[in-house]
Amino acid sequence: MDINTFSKINDNRWEIEPRGKMRVPAVIHASEALIRDMDDKVREQIVNVATLPGIVSAAHAMPDAHWGYGFPIGGVAAFDPAQDGVISAGGVGFDISCGVRTHLTGLGRNDIESQRNKLADALLRNIPAGIGSRGDITLGKRGMDDMLAGGAGWALSEGYGEARDLEFIEDNGRADGALPRHVSQRARQRQCREMGTLGSGNHYLEIQEITDIHDAETARVFGLVKGECVVTIHCGSRGLGHQIGTEFLREMAMAAADYGIALPDRELACAPIESEIGRRYTGAMRSAINCALANRQILGHLMREVFHPFWPGLELNLLFDVSHNTCKPEFHIVSGQRKTLYVHRKGATRALGPGHPGIPEKFQSTGQPVLIGGSMGTESWVLAGMESSEDTAFSSACHGAGRCMSRNQARKRWQGRQVVDGLAERGITVRSPSMRGVAEEAPGAYKDVSEVVLASENAGLARRVARLKPVICIKG
Amino acid sequence: MNGVRSAARPMPGWEHFAHVADIGVRGFGPSMERAFEQAALAMISVISDLSTIRACETVDIACRAPDADFLLADWLNAIVFEMATRNMLFSRFEVTITENRLRGRASGEAVDVARHKPAAEIKGATLSELKVTQTSDGRWIAQCIVDV
Predict the structure, then answer these.
(1) CB of A461 within 8 A of CB of A398?
(2) Residue spans per domain, chain A
(3) Cβ pair A75, A347 in contact under 8 A
(4) CATH of B29-147, one of 3.55.10.10, 3.40.109.10, 1.10.8.60, 3.40.50.300
């Protein structure tokens, strides 16, 4: 992307002043090198977001921003319902509340090493992954409604996970204000056999070694010890979220003109927060958030069941569970006034700083754990929310590495078996039902996540706490 | 990746086009119907090699939309829904369109992971790069980006 179309505010903040139909500036929080590597579409899309009604302060792009649909992936925008602000199905995306959770194991790399192959096989056998896989749970109408309203708490009441988990999930594992009656029959149908499934594409379960600590005090509070391993799960709201996204995107795109909204791109489909469609979508989208939270809670439980025969009594405490495709009502201070804003984060993680009332007591001094997924061959990161993140981008940070190569290009360049063998030589065991899927997710198809997290820290969004390297990866 | 097509004559065919995070699907044909069928084949080939999927079971699909663009998105999303809920993959499509009403048939079989080696499931057809047009040589093009 041509950097000259932005004004440099500092090394990690670049802006486009409002022009044309833009209501607010468009801001990219990234280093010059990262911006130069971004697709031109990122600029076009973040400028388009800046034109939407009721947007507050600025349209933000995170350091890992890339070409999405409507919003860039890595886009953050807040809307004020009192100023005819909108809620956008395109701004949340298809995989509503897709996110990451990390469990602490307390096991050293050597402990995992001693069971490596048996553990990898057991995980592949017990974690439903990939196309055609089904969970053991079949939900009827009543169970589905309870799940959609209850989130991770519902999963707990069904026997999945531990009560202590809930405190360490965003919003205690449940989105308030879910309205399951606005979730269509078709969305329910897509979900009735998909609870407790990982999905495919870039979704994974990974055992990772903590290889570097960047902030010793925060790592201590988080329970991260160099040389120990964690388990990280990346997945979302499965078929239910995809179907809700599909249906409301269509409906909002068609209705936009009725609300006097000129969409620069149909994929930015949105409606006023305080409209009939806006309220229906909000209720359905929150139900999908609960579905994702319940799904990750079940997967966390299935993972514990795999570990226990190997290490009886192991607690596998949840470090934290974050979502990176959401829209949430939150309090923010704008021009000295406290306002409720609807903050869209599409491929962006909420990153609350120290002292924020929205994070558990345990993290009051450190800020919220922000979990960043890399690619299977490289690395992932644990960051912590910073105080400065509130003023910088509504307490938001990056979410992952982001692709730098299309799936077709990746498949032309690598074969699945070759990727698996190459990673095995580097001490990484990959298990997947699909070798083609592995080729498409080859490490080389992703950007360097270490650059992204460094820019995140330098931009004041979230600071680096620990680097994680993969040991065993189960790919959907 | 390409299906059989010719730029000179309006023969049916399909191709993928680039999107860094996901993938674009594009169908060509001498009519809108054939282009829709080809776009569906392009979408399935994001998941599996079409030649591995036997067309032994047929599912009827009906959609209705205010214009051809939305009709294409609805058609592709209806296929995504049938694949997800029936746990099937399809390799043959037949489409008839009258005044923005589509009647379609999708033929395929239950997913067999060993044989189909599915790479990734499709979350949905997006409205990005969504376009149904006829070129000056009479050829129809139906395309959009699908979220993987």
Answers:
(1) yes
(2) 3-404+446-475
(3) yes
(4) 3.55.10.10
pLDDT digits (tens, 9 = 90+) for B110-148: 999 989 999 888 999 999 999 999 999 999 999 999 998
The pLDDT, as a whole number, for residue B78 is 98
A472 residue type, one letter: I
Paired tokens of A196: 């407790």
**How close is the nearest chain B Cα to the Cα of A436, in Å?**
5
Among residues A239, A271, A254, A463, which one has the least CA distance to residue A370? Answer: A463
Phi, psi angle pair for A368, to nearest 5°: -70, 140
CB-based contacts of A339: which residues, under 8 Å, 6+ apart?
A56, A80, A82, A331, A332, A333
Which residue ranges make up each domain of chain B?
29-147
Chain A nearest CA to B68, separation (Å): 13
The pair of three-digit structure tokens given for residue A412, joined into one six-digit string: 């032309």
In this structure, are residues A368 and A334 in contact, taking their beta carbons and an 8 Å threshold? no
The beta strand positions in A348-387, using DSSP E, are: 349-350, 369-372, 380-385
Model confidence pLDDT, tens digit, residues A85-134: 999 999 999 999 999 999 999 999 999 999 999 999 999 999 999 887 88
Q: Where are the alpha helices (DSSP H) in chain B?
A: 32-47, 68-86, 113-116
The yes/no answer on whether domain A3-404+446-475 falls in CATH 3.30.1360.180 is no
The phi and psi torsions of A321 (rounded to 5 degrees) equal -135, 115
| CA R_g for chain A | 21
CB A379, CB A449: distance < 8 Å: yes
Question: Which chain A residues contact residue B81 at CB under 8 A?
Answer: 186, 189-190, 243
* Residues from chain A contacting residue B118 (CB–CB below 8 Å): 130-132, 200, 433-434, 436-437
Distance from CA of A22 to the nearest CA of B (A): 21
Specify whether A66 is catalytic. no
- B chain contacts of residue A94, beta-carbon cutoff 8 Å: 123-124, 126, 147
